[in-house]
Specification:
binds iron/sulfur cluster; alpha+beta; two-stranded parallel ribbon; 8 helices; 2 domains; 38% helix; 234 residues; Alpha-Beta Plaits
């Protein structure tokens, strides 16, 4: 698979499904055959993930990215062997980090849920092309990651404003919005991946979807109260 296909979610899922380390090999930087230079994208994704690993207390040695040409088989073997040795020394994921398996699962599952939001919030940096390895560690600073995590929004539908037009439910990629004709819509927070689609599509004349940062999400209204009066639908 071309490294341009690497997604932050792939890496998180690999660890969530039991990998102790992830090695990514891509074509040499600046030698991509496509104008998109997907290997830079893969590099930036791996740098973002490393910064997130640091935040969540996971050893950054569990991920490695290398760039090589098809004639560098020996380099590939050497770097893979070195990586395997290092990961074996760290032991199973969570052991070196002293994170209990259940806590690790909670952290990684939370991270997986944040992926769409993180990709949107860091999209400009994910597109950067930094050839100088000495500058890679500066792409995502610790302060930036703390801010990103702390400012992860929640989305909530104001029941006083929703007219049940159903647009948001149609655009939600994970069916996290419960609604229906004449039924005030609510967001199922456990399912929401914070993509913001509902916020974007709710017509401005209703502005029923709210983006909440740094505050708790109000409880959804009771089912029997979820009807829309005809006068509200204009
Ligand atoms: S932000 Fe809105 S559209 Fe996106 S997953 Fe959450 S509820 Fe669905
Ligand atoms: S788009 Fe807005 S008004 Fe329409 S159902 Fe969703 S929250 Fe309600």
């Amino acid at each position: 698979m071309c490294t341009g296909r690497i997604d932050l979610a792939f890496i998180v899922k690999a660890f969530l499904e039991g990998a102790d380390g992830v090695y990514i090999a891509g074509c040499k930087l600046n030698e991509c055959n496509y104008t998109t230079h997907g290997n830079f994208y893969a590099l930036n994704v791996s740098l973002l993930f490393k910064a997130l690993m640091d935040y969540f207390g996971i050893n950054k040695g569990r991920i490695r990215i290398e760039f090589l040409s098809s004639s560098e088989g020996l380099f590939f073997v050497e770097t893979v062997s070195d990586f395997i040795r290092n990961v074996a020394e760290l032991g199973p994921l969570g052991e070196a980090e002293q994170i209990a398996p259940d806590d690790l699962k909670i952290k990684l599952s939370y991270l997986l849920k944040l992926v769409p939001y993180l990709k949107i919030a860091t999209r400009l940096k994910l597109q950067s092309k930094i050839s100088d390895p000495s500058k890679w560690d500066q792409l995502f600073t610790k302060e930036e990651i703390i801010k990103l995590i702390n400012e992860a929004p929640a989305y909530w539908i104001d029941p006083e404003k929703c007219v049940a037009c159903t647009l948001c439910a149609q655009r939600c990629p994970v069916e996290a919005i419960d609604g229906g004709k004449n039924k005030i819509h609510i967001i199922i927070q456990d399912k929401c991946i914070k993509c913001g689609n509902c916020f974007e599509v709710c017509p401005s004349r209703f502005s029923a979807v709210k983006k909440l940062v740094g505050m708790s999400v109000p409880e959804p209204i009771k089912d029997e109260q979820r009807y829309v009066k005809k006068s509200d639908t204009g």
